């Protein structure tokens, strides 16, 4: 639940401004490969397949789903399209049928889109044994987070994001969870409507519980109207997604699930382990969500963490050899960013597109989005330098690139996937509405106090779900996953979206959980941190050897 109410849409559009083309290319590369882990040194890690504690059983009534024959086809390097005739891309794709409603397996069915990147066999120093085949290392399932993130898009880029030890030894399997992307998906807004939503054109004059409820009701009406599968909006919860994941494990021929989940993907992974402890193999949960927290608890935790991240950015900006537009000490620098953002409420900043000025909402999400990746901080500095220009020629183009990039807005104005639309519909099924108008206003005050900069993105989560209208039946409670194999939880001390305390909490809750700490900033660790984290994660995924207890990288 990295973001609650606002829509954060991405474009790598080519902007004809000095230096902007280089910035666009740099941001695109950073989003694909934040740390270039695959380019770092790798130790000798001997790989062996994971095993289940018992032979997996097929839940009663679901035999046809677990035993279905899946039709795989060679597909392109990007997306789900078929590969050109005779082209060996190393990718194969399929659609897997699952029940819309697991309490009625004989009813309507939906499809889960799956994409597999074949093991390359060029692992560095590891023992490579016919991955995916009899006696091989097998398949590594992945989830990028969200909710609403596309595993199809993530698997497209794992060659540069994951280590060669992993991609050489494992078939890497990405999937779009139900409701998302290339699976049976929800649909709510046209591209132009999403542009308007992101720009803040639908924002109430004064945020309140009543205004938030009304906004959610309008969004639900739009989603109900455009979503082609009746009932889908009631069945895109994480428990259903975890049950889908067990079907995927079975049809992929894996006795045990080996899994690497980021951010919300940790909640999906922990839920899977709770439901199917005997089927867990090696699970790594990076940037953990604490399943016991309410929506209000989570927004308050994020409010505090994003402000801490902003201060870390300002400190680095001011101490950098690069030109920093923020003067004075850290407090002064933070105040200057807030004043700049506030100024865009009444004076949006021109960009290279005269039809799309940089509004307050767009500027705010651009700054917030850059907090996820420290590798974007230099780009943010360049963008703020242009946008805060005091000579009278302010230019919001570079900051628009950043905010568009995190919303998957393409250069032609279209959006890749539906992650921004799926975020709250999934969250509202996972978080039962708690409290009332009075407590919601009290939480809003606490969030504003905790995050004067970013609070507009984090207000009234329960009021939104009240207006959304699709009720949650899930309890917010600790997950122990009793009987599961060891689970490695990775936490980043300066993580703004999933604060480090959440990783500590999940590792403590899980009966077999163990915490690996990275002392760093930004969201999640694997693929963007250092060799210490990479080698610890790789070793566990490849041969089941946990790192030393209490390891801090």
Architecture overview:
There is one protein chain. The protein is of the alpha/beta class and 553 residues long. It has helices spanning 20-32, 63-66, 151-161, 164-169, 191-199, 209-226, 238-251, 264-275, 295-319, 330-346, 360-370, 377-387, 397-405, 419-430, 437-450, 461-468, 500-509, 531-543, and strands at 73-74, 91-99, 109-117, 139-143, 171-175, 257-262, 280-286, 487-494, 513-521. β8 (487-494), α17 (500-509) and β9 form a beta-alpha-beta unit. Residues 1-26, 28-40 and 124-135 have low confidence and may be disordered.
* Largest pleated sheet: 9 strands, mixed
* Strand and helix order: HHEEEEHHEHHHEHEHHHHHHHHEHEH
What percent strand?
Answer: 5-15%
Number of helices: 18
The first-to-last residue Cα distance is 26 Å
């Amino acid at each position: 639940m990295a973001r609650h109410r606002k829509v954060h849409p991405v474009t790598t559009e080519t902007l004809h401004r000095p230096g902007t083309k280089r910035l666009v290319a740099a941001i695109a590369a950073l989003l694909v490969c934040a740390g270039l882990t695959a380019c770092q040194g790798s130790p000798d890690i001997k790989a062996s397949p994971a095993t289940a504690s018992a032979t997996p059983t097929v839940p009663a009534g679901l035999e046809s789903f677990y035993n279905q024959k899946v039709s795989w086809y060679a597909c392109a390097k990007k997306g789900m399209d078929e590969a050109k005739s005779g082209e060996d891309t190393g990718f194969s794709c399929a659609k897997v049928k699952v029940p819309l409603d697991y309490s009625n397996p004989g009813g309507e069915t939906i499809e889960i889109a799956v994409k597999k990147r074949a093991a390359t066999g060029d692992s560095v120093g590891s023992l490579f044994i016919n991955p995916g085949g009899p006696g091989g290392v097998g398949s590594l399932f992945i989830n990028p987070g969200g909710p609403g993130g596309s595993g199809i898009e993530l698997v497209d880029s794992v060659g540069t994001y994951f280590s060669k030890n992993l991609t050489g030894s494992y078939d890497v399997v990405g999937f779009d969870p139900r409701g998302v992307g290339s699976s049976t998906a929800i649909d709510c807004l046209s591209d132009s409507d999403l542009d308007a939503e992101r720009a803040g054109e639908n924002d109430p004059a004064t945020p309140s519980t009543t205004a938030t409820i009304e906004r959610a009701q309008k969004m639900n009406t739009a989603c109900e109207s455009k979503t082609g599968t009746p009932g889908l909006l009631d069945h895109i919860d994480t428990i259903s997604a975890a049950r889908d994941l067990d079907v995927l494990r079975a049809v992929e021929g894996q006795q045990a699930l080996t899994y690497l989940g980021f951010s919300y993907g940790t909640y999906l992974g922990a839920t899977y382990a709770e439901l199917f402890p005997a089927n867990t193999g090696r699970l790594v949960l990076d940037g953990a969500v604490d399943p016991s927290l309410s929506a209000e608890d989570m927004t308050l935790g994020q409010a505090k963490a994003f402000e801490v991240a902003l201060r870390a950015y300002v400190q680095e900006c001011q101490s950098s050899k690069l030109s920093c537009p923020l003067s004075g000490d850290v407090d002064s620098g933070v105040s200057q960013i807030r004043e700049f953002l506030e100024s865009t409420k009444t004076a949006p900043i021109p960009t290279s597109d005269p039809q799309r000025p940089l509004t307050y909402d767009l500027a705010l999400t651009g700054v917030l989005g850059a907090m996820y990746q420290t590798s974007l901080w230099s780009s943010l500095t360049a963008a703020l330098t242009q946008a805060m220009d005091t000579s009278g020629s302010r230019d919001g183009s570079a900051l628009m690139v950043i905010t568009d990039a995190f919303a998957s807005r393409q250069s032609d104005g279209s959006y890749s996937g539906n992650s921004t639309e799926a975020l709250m519909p999934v969250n509202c099924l996972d978080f039962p509405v708690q409290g009332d108008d009075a407590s919601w206003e009290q939480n809003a005050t606490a969030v504003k106090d905790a995050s004067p900069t970013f609070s507009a993105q984090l207000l009234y989560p329960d009021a939104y779900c009240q207006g959304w209208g699709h009720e949650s039946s899930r309890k917010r409670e600790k997950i122990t996953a009793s009987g599961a194999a060891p689970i490695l939880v990775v936490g980043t001390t300066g993580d703004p979206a999933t604060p480090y305390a959440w990783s500590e909490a999940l590792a403590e809750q899980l009966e077999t959980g163990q915490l690996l700490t990275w002392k760093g900033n930004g969201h999640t660790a694997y693929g963007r941190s250092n060799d210490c984290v990479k080698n610890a994660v790789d070793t566990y995924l490849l041969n089941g050897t946990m790192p030393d207890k209490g390891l801090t990288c």
